[in-house]
Structure formats: C-alpha cells, structure tokens
Amino acid sequence: MKRPFLKIGLLLVFGVVFLTGVQSFFNQQEINLASERCLKAGGEPIVERDLLSLNYTFACHIK
Asked: pTM for this one?
C-alpha cells in the first residue's frame, strides 16, 4: 500500500524541482537579455536577485 504514495510523492518532488529549475533558467535568460540591451543603450544595469533568480529587480541607469 505504501508504494503508490511513494511513487506519487517522488513524482511531485521531481516535478517541483523541474519547474523551479525551468523558472530559474528563463528568469536568468531574461536578466541577461535586459542587461545586454541596457549596456547597448549606454546604461549600467543594476540587478538584485535571490539564489535561484526566482525573484529579481532590474534597473537600467543611463549615464
């Protein structure tokens, strides 16, 4: 009886880890793109983010 619950639990854990990784990856890509565009515009990108880039703030200060 414990096997189905164990399998469902492991599936949920792997699903959460996968989705967190995907969100982190795409946020990092967005930060990189915004930073590149800021630099091309002659600005200085200011980025504050947490460990996995799940939460971040971005500002571009034009010189």
From this structure: 0.80
